[in-house]
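Before a colleague's protein record goes any further, I have to sign it off. My question to you is simply how this chain folds and whether the tokens agree. I do not need a full report, just your reasoning and any doubts. This is what I was given:
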Amino acid sequence: MRTTTRTLAVTACALLVLALSGVASGATQNATPKKWISVFCGSVLTWEHTVKSNTTKLNATFKTLKSAGKADIPTVKSKLVTYLNGIVKSTNSMVADVKHVGAPNVQNGAKLQSAVLSAFALVQKAFNQTLSSAKKLPTGDAKAFEKQALALAKALQGNAGRIGAAFNPIQKYSTKELNDAAKATPACAKLGD
């Protein structure tokens, strides 16, 4: 019995080592320039479309509520929080996609990946803070709500512009392989439209 237990323990340890080495090798695996650019541009494009679409929907909802005379503060706050939840979810997805693909297999690929993820982390943090602030908007005082909601809107506009910072490292660590991949990736050409 003792040998069976020991054999099982050794086998389990061996399997654990194999599994962990597989995880570690996956974490350090580099993406081809084409794959990395495709994921980067595709993720940012999806994020952009989500932000634009959700903003259009939010504006239409507010316009409908206002024209129907039902723009009460709790409803407006609820719609704003729902909107921001969608943006936070999309931002988190964009970051996860770029993390998951790994660094591009080019000179300074790890530096590029790190710089892009740092820029995305700033965007992620800003939207999470905006969402947190929106959840705290007062609903008992219309003037206080309006003042704080306008401040949030200004902060949100500034935060949305930070996504451009993610492109600076691509220029700094540009390589022929990445440039060629970007030219051949339709999602890259659609960014900013």
The first helix runs from residue 2 to 28. Residues 1-30 form one domain. Confidence is low (pLDDT under 50) at residues 1-28. The chain has eight helices and no strands.
